[in-house]
């Protein structure tokens, strides 16, 4: 469906199911903000841990769609794990976007491998 209607990837939706996992909820509120608001399918897929779906969306999205924000100015890079971040950076996602709390995606990770990705792919 995304191949035929690429605009679907940038449409935003609200859902009561969109929540941070309980084990990261406090950190998420601190660094991303408590308000999620309307999100793109990519944001939902990453938030829900659906990495295969997220990868499909990334591969079929325009670069500009990867820059869509949710909640407090967060992008998919603010949410992503190593595989997702790698793919987003390869597709040209902006690594320097500050969210409303002043954090760039690299600031949100304590994973050395992930932090290295942000530096090595510039």
UniProtKB/TrEMBL annotation:
Keyword Repeat (UniProt): yes
Stored Pfam families: Ank (PF00023)
InterPro entries documented for this protein: Ankyrin_rpt, Ankyrin_rpt-contain_sf
Biological process annotations from GO: protein K6-linked ubiquitination
Superkingdom assignment: Eukaryota
Record GO terms (molecular function): ubiquitin-protein transferase activity
Keywords: ANK repeat, Repeat
Protein name stated in the entry: Ankyrin repeat protein
Organism expressing this protein natively: Boothiomyces macroporosus
């Amino acid at each position: 469906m995304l191949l035929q209607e690429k605009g679907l990837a940038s449409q935003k939706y609200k859902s009561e199911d969109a929540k941070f996992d309980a084990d990261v909820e406090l950190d998420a509120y601190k660094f991303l903000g408590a308000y999620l608001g309307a999100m793109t399918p990519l944001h939902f897929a990453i938030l829900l841990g659906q990495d295969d779906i997220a990868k499909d969306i990334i591969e079929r999205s325009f670069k500009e769609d990867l820059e869509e924000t949710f909640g407090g100015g967060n992008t998919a890079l603010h949410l992503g794990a190593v595989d997702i971040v790698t793919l987003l950076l390869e597709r040209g996602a902006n690594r320097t976007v500050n969210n409303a709390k002043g954090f760039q995606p690299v600031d949100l990770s304590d994973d050395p491998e992930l932090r290295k990705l942000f530096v090595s792919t510039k």
